[in-house]
């Protein structure tokens, strides 16, 4: 059974909502999501599931169904504010969604096979998809999950600080801890994170999470229980978010599951600042020149 690619795209809906694709980076307006799906198909994924807001489903289908038809199975699931579906009888006022691990729960009825989760607007590189397919077909089980670990130096912006899940990894490549550092940046030749106006160095080969995770469907049951507790604990905190690293930490600390950190040397691209866009475009142009991608992705 081929694994499934689950794409976190609910936060992108407003940018898709005008019937246009989000920013084009490729020569024919291809988005980062197009390159992700292209790499996933090449690596051996059998299905792609988009997590979106329900009101944008027709827009998404118009953008993706025709180009992906016959190439990979597609499905759409919806992240929303309905807590009753999780057995939570509270009215909790929120203006923004509950976070990435809550978004993943939206796919609990749509996925029955090993799967991986990615962000819609991050460019990860083919190597990461190939390594994840290998893990999901050969190693994954209900107590052995994975995360693609990027070298921190290959994930930064030249235009300001970024937020990164900084990982502590054991000698045998398993995740011991993941800490969200909200201000990671270049400081001369060094890489540092800032906290309370102090700077702390990070070594160049420090592994970070870019939200590229491998699971079995068992994680839905566990996440649902954790989310019920999280929602009740944060009923008066409208900005609290239920992130995937919170689930990972809970599984590790309770000895329920381990996370293998699968290293990649790929360079991550993303647009944290508007000034990053031309760099991403130039990087993709170079990959096309090098023959990694065709000039017209879907033809």
From TrEMBL:
<dbReference type="Pfam" id="PF00483">
    <property type="entry name" value="NTP_transferase"/>
</dbReference>
<feature type="domain" description="Nucleotidyl transferase">
    <location>
        <begin position="29"/>
        <end position="225"/>
    </location>
</feature>
<protein>
    <submittedName>
        <fullName>NDP-sugar pyrophosphorylase family protein</fullName>
    </submittedName>
</protein>
<dbReference type="InterPro" id="IPR029044">
    <property type="entry name" value="Nucleotide-diphossugar_trans"/>
</dbReference>
<dbReference type="InterPro" id="IPR005835">
    <property type="entry name" value="NTP_transferase_dom"/>
</dbReference>
């Amino acid at each position: 059974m081929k694994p499934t690619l689950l794409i976190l795209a609910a936060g992108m809906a407003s940018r898709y909502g005008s019937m246009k694709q989000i920013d084009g980076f490729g020569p024919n307006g291809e988005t980062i999501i197009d390159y992700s799906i292209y790499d996933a198909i090449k690596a051996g994924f059998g299905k792609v599931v988009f997590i979106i807001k329900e009101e944008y489903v027709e827009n998404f289908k118009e953008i993706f169904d025709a180009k992906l038809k016959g190439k990979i199975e597609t499905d759409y699931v919806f992240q929303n504010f309905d807590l009753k579906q999780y057995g939570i009888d509270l009215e909790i006022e929120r203006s923004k969604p509950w976070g990435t691990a809550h978004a993943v729960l939206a796919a609990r009825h749509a996925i029955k096979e090993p799967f991986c989760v990615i962000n819609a607007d991050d460019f990860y590189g083919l190597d990461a998809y190939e390594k994840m397919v290998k893990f999901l077909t050969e190693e994954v089980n209900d107590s052995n999950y994975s995360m693609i670990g990027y070298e921190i130096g290959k994930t930064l912006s030249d235009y300001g600080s970024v937020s990164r899940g900084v990982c502590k990894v054991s000698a045998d490549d398993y995740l011991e801890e993941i800490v969200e550092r909200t201000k990671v940046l270049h400081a001369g030749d060094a890489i540092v994170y800032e906290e309370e106006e102090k700077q702390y160095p990070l070594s160049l080969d420090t592994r970070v999470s870019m939200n590229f995770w491998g699971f079995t469907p068992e994680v839905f049951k566990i996440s649902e229980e954790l989310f019920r507790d999280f929602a009740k604990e944060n009923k008066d905190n409208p900005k609290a978010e239920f992130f995937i690293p919170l689930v990972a930490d809970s599984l590790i600390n309770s000895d329920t599951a381990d996370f293998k950190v699968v290293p990649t040397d790929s360079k991550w691209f993303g647009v944290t600042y508007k000034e990053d866009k031309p760099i991403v475009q130039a990087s993709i142009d170079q990959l096309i020149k090098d023959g990694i991608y065709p000039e017209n992705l879907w033809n």
